[in-house]
Design goal:
With 190 residues, this protein is α+β, with helices and mostly antiparallel strands. Helices cover 12% and strands 29% of the residues.
């Protein structure tokens, strides 16, 4: 692991951030213990023009306010009334774009693949929930990201995002999901 990611990392274009997050370490410190996972799969959501985004057409709700924060803030929400989904805001303040963290490779101790190979599973493993909503990953002493292994472009697979058929064929077919080729911790949608 390396040094903490700074604000300028999160302020890059969202599709670039989604790819550059691969290989980075996501850390949740609870007391003296750290739960750590290496990011192996992400999905990008490009704000008001993206029909799959919670901020499509500039929609603002109590749920998606963190998506409008300057890059580097936690946007976490509940789906199906039981699974937390961790997103990270990107870009400038007021520009509602984010990256969903879809899968991590557990680091300490190695967990079975099925414990972290999906957005709800990784939140359970990292013990992330509504309490972390809006947290600034640049300043937080509880949750942050650090440099990790640089993943070469040849090892990054671009694929369709998962579970967004409601957004229509054009948006559902955008290859805005990125994962590390042949990593066993990637979710099963390949």
């Amino acid at each position: 692991m390396g040094k903490r990611l700074l604000r300028k990392f999160y302020q890059q274009p969202t599709l670039k951030v989604a790819q550059k997050l691969l290989g980075k370490y996501l850390i949740h410190k609870i007391g003296k213990k750290k739960i750590i996972g290496k990011i192996v799969e992400t999905e990008a959501y490009i704000g008001p023009k993206d029909k799959a985004s919670h901020s499509y057409l500039g929609k603002v709700t109590a749920r998606n306010l963190a998506e409008y924060m300057v890059g580097g803030h936690v946007y976490i929400y509940l789906v199906y009334g039981m699974y937390w989904q961790l997103n990270i805001s990107t870009g400038r303040s007021g520009q509602p774009e984010c990256v969903l963290i879809r899968a991590i490779e557990s680091i300490n101790p190695k967990k079975e693949i099925n414990a972290t190979n999906g957005p709800g599973k990784l939140c359970r493993y990292l013990k992330l929930n509504k309490r972390h909503y809006g947290l600034d990953l640049v300043k937080s002493k509880e949750v942050w990201l650090e440099e990790g292994t640089r993943v070469p472009k040849s090892k990054i697979v671009a694929a369709k995002r998962i579970g967004i058929d409601y957004a229509g064929k054009f948006w559902a077919n955008r290859k805005w999901r990125f994962y590390i080729k042949n990593n066993p911790y990637v979710s099963r949608f390949n």
